């Protein structure tokens, strides 16, 4: 029996996709081979690869000015790969800190150059808001400005993306990529690891504006140099073939769901239901300011934290799994990515109300 899986990542995948992958496991489309046994340069995998790229371009409406790359290394890898690719002429960047992931990005960039903090959303209560662009104190002529548009751990999402003129905006969108339409033209670079809202761990999607392909530091490893990877159609070295295949199946599933506009409506409905339940209760609390509440990752706390283990045990008994908050913030967290159905959120809020009723 399948459970309702609220994991932050690796996270739930659409059941349809898993079934299709199972069906095709031993013999992909009459090839007599599993996708993971194929040459990445053979016609079968080339088809899988190019369809995945095309479907993603269509889903996200990526403009012709931007390349889509399939890399390895995850979001954490990009923390180094981004400065290695953009610090070639000026080794300095600005960081908007909205949570733990952007903090990590800033720390890693320090290995390669200057990493100025332009704004921070940290308050007494932790990371609870996304500083608006009017509060960003940019340094003089940075190579780029980095922003994590959805902080997976803290549950802070940024919805207003400013126009920074000539300064490229680099976004870590790992945990909300494909959750809603995004105007890719506003970004110099947008990246995300696959295991949250795309597919399985192993592939990282990097969308990069073409004019930024020429700014790498000379020490940048070839396998991570966007220009080299782009020139080789993301096949400079052996790509994570099976992860690309699964991502491709998810892209086709997303298209069947009606694309990102339809997904966004569903994601709003799911998030609304959960936040409304939290706000209506005096037992559950979410500390993030309303305009920055993440639609994908919903952290919440119990008024009586001694009941955390009871809450999790009761949830597990109902098939509601992976609700424990990140160790750095504690409490609970429900990640409600594209593949988590509305029924899962309904089951969760029903349980939350029941659990609350056992108090007092
Ligand atoms: C999960 C996550 C990462 C780290 O991804 P890895 O694949 O573990 O490197 C980075 N940034 C964000 C926003 C994430 O959600």
From TrEMBL:
Localization per record: Cytoplasm
Residue numbers binding pyridoxal 5'-phosphate: 101, 152, 172, 195, 237-238
Keyword tRNA processing: no
Cofactor: pyridoxal 5'-phosphate
Main localization category: cytoplasm
Gene3D superfamilies for this protein: Aspartate Aminotransferase, domain 1 (3.90.1150.10), Type I PLP-dependent aspartate aminotransferase-like (Major domain) (3.40.640.10)
Gene Ontology MF terms: O-phospho-L-serine:2-oxoglutarate aminotransferase activity; pyridoxal phosphate binding
CDD domains linked to this entry: PSAT_like
One protein family per Pfam: Aminotran_5
Keywords from the UniProt entry: Amino-acid biosynthesis, Aminotransferase, Cytoplasm, Pyridoxal phosphate, Pyridoxine biosynthesis, Serine biosynthesis, Transferase
Binding-site positions, L-glutamate: 41
Membership in a protein family: Belongs to the class-V pyridoxal-phosphate-dependent aminotransferase family. SerC subfamily.
Protein name in UniProt: Phosphoserine aminotransferase
Organism of origin: Paraburkholderia tagetis
Gene: serC
